[in-house]
Design goal:
It comes from Pyxicephalus adspersus. InterPro entries: Coa4-like (IPR039870), Cys_alpha_HP_mot_SF (IPR009069). This is Cytochrome c oxidase assembly factor 4 homolog. One of its GO terms (cellular component) is mitochondrial intermembrane space. The termini are far apart. The longest helix is centred in the C-terminal third of the chain and has 33 residues, at about 55-85. The chain is mostly helical and about 90 residues long. Helix 2 runs antiparallel to helix 3 (about 55-85). The protein has one domain. The radius of gyration is 18 Å and the shape is elongated. It is built from 3 helices and no strands.
Amino acid sequence: MSAPTPRPHDRSLKAAEDEDDPVDQMIARTGCTALHYAVQECMAEHQDWRKCQVQVQNFRDCMQDYQKKRAEELIKKRTLLQGQAS
């Protein structure tokens, strides 16, 4: 008898403890959750990341947009704080 094949990217097997997963929480804050799940579903279906390049690129673009906006917000906030300190 062989061990069951692990399916790390299968979101249909999501357990209750995953509800508090810090990675999921972080991704939810970015607004890229649907794209993240699309990557995971593709990986679960194909078991080959090379066949999921469209999904990976879409998720990557979303995350880069979020990071750019976040950096701009932090710079703006820092500038405001420095102006108040002067």
